[in-house]
């Protein structure tokens, strides 16, 4: 790949494989991978642990007040070749993927101050480019100047099946119906929240991966990166 570095923003619906594609791109391009979803899951986990979820609703003031003392960092695990999320120095990668966190992450991430704190952190990391980020507002809010924006979507039933298999393989006990309901709930929350709702950036390229394998998606995305890098070479 070219020595020039760009910012790659991947947005889309839950359980579309955004993280899988982003991590693969970062590994091949030797870019920094920032898992924005993991950042919001980390804040959600902290809220759950500290009784800041009351009757199924986030205690906004308590969560906002705790943001100053939080630190969310990432490390690349050489052995597993995977990104690992740390909350105040503690490895929480497995815990943030559990269903109780998934059920609360949308309302917690809808809090304006939470999003502002995470976006500030993300932009700081992205100053030198050479990053891949996935989430729901990366191309519209965090990095509207990103050179490559991808908006991922897939059939809801296919997304539910993928998520179910992923959790079962991790040894978690869940029902497919529970996953379907969670995806429908998150889609509704993500598209209708006041702060940074999920929407496609006008210049984002749509990737419907309902019938694509991870390898096919990766080749598709790498082609887009190559085209941008070559266009830049030609313009000089």
Task: Summarize it.
This protein is α/β, with parallel strands linked by helices and 236 residues long. The chain is built from nine helices and ten strands. It has a single domain, classed as Rossmann fold, CATH 3.40.50.
Low-confidence stretches: none
Helix-and-strand structural type: alpha/beta
Cα separation of the termini:
17 Å
What is the CATH C level class, in words? Alpha Beta
Largest sheet: 5 strands, parallel
Average of the residue pLDDT scores: 90
According to DSSP, the number of beta strands is 10
- Helical residue percent band: 40-55%
Shape: globular
CATH superfamily: P-loop containing nucleotide triphosphate hydrolases
Structure description:
The structure is a single chain. The chain has 236 residues and is α/β, with parallel strands linked by helices. It has one domain (7-226): P-loop containing nucleotide triphosphate hydrolases (Rossmann fold, 3-Layer(aba) Sandwich), CATH 3.40.50. It is 49% helix and 18% strand. It is built from 9 helices and 10 strands. It has helices at residues 18-29, 36-49, 60-66, 99-109, 112-125, 138-142, 156-169, 176-192, 214-235, and strands at 7-12, 32-35, 53-54, 57-58, 72-77, 82-87, 90-91, 131-135, 148-153, 205-208. Strands 2-8-1-9-10 form a 5-stranded parallel sheet. The longest helix is centred in the last third of the chain and has 22 residues, at 214-235. The chain is globular and about 55 Å long. 37% of the residues are buried. The model has no long low-confidence stretch (mean pLDDT 90).
